[in-house]
Design goal:
Blueprint (H helix, E strand, L loop, with lengths): L1 H42 L14 H7 L2 H33 L5 H9 L6 H12 L4 H7 L14 H26 L3 H9 L4 H28 L3 H8 L10 H10 L3 H36 L12 E4 L5 E4 L5 E4 L2 H10 L4 E7 L4 H13 L1 E8 L6 H13 L2 E5 L9
Parallel strand pairs: 1-4, 4-5, 5-6
Antiparallel strand pairs: 1-2, 2-3
Helix pairs in contact: 1-12, 2-12, 3-7, 3-9, 3-11, 4-7, 5-10, 7-9, 9-12, 11-12, 13-14, 14-15
Length: about 425
Amino acid sequence: MKKRSLKFNDKAKDFLKSMCFLSPSLLGVGVFFIIPFFVVVYYSVIDGVGSRNFVFLDNFVKLFQNSAFLTAAKNTLTFSFLAVPLAVILSMALALMLECRIPLKSQFRTFFLSPMMVPVASVVLIWQVLFNYNGTVNEFIMLFGVDKIDWLQTDYAMLVVIILFLWKNLGYFMILFMAGLANIPKELLEVADVEGASEWYKFFAIKLRYLSPTVLFVTILSLINSFKVFREVYLLTGAYPYSSLYMLQHFMNNTFQSLDYQKLSAAAVVMAIVMVVLIALLFAAAGITKLQWSDTLRLTALDVGQGECIVLTSGEHAAVIDCGGSWVTHDAGKSAVQFLGGECRKSIDALILTHLHTDHANGAAQLLQRVRVGTLYLPRETKETSLLAEILNAAERQGTRVEYVTEDMALPLG
């Protein structure tokens, strides 16, 4: 009892200490974000700041009957659904391109990173010089006999803002993808090269698999930034731009100037709900994609004969090569065991442990108990541990041959 009470007291002390460190941040978030949000929700369900009569959803009904709000919502969603996928795809493509040996790589990187160091007002000034009616772009297209275009007062206005959004954000997103690419184990790519995998297979089966958290983060970040594009549009066109550029924040800004707090609060609540729903859908899609990749992702056709082979690599990831000649990636040794058990495999040609990682060792021991393994390959420098003893005992019971190999030794896989 005394030991339990001491443990409880230690946990309580640790909790109190952590809360002391967190309290300034929690206080700031509560005062400046959480409490104001609930005040906005309260304003959205009353008829006025003075009378404060509860009207429930009347403000929301009026909001959805407002043509200006509907136009702003349509334009904002259209911009987001166009700009966000482009930002993710192009920034990933740029990161992949900068991985290769190309001329003028540093200048190319500087071109996309420079907007991060330039204030928004300066960026907008450049865009005004480029896309003004008498600007640089019109002067250029006139050389080919094309008439001038009023870029910011026609249907081309959305295109101009999308290009501005991409140029301003691609550099930062590119850095995030480059960091993600740097974390991909080189061993997997080297094995894929040795086995003759094409670049497309390597991208979809290895690189995209490891980049999935970065893709999710960049998508959420670009989605949030797309809802904050008001500054650029306002500086380019003012409070009442061309109809295709009238965004939700234009509506909210103009509503605030007219002091219509109920309509403004209702619009803010709707915007918050839409953002939460979209981000929740992204997380759900990421979870489904990860599950599918873990179970069915294909890399390349391999000549492994009529047998089967499982390769457990270092770190947290494993790879399975089946008799059909497909390579399926998995998250750990136990996943490989589940994969083999789910497919009702009776035997495999070889089990290769490049590193005696705990999960892989446990998975290997379980695998040897369930499936007949022809040969077990272990690193020559493997130290004697209880895990190794368990593996060797399981191999002996199954009649599995054990061989010790070095990293540079070619293994007879089929």
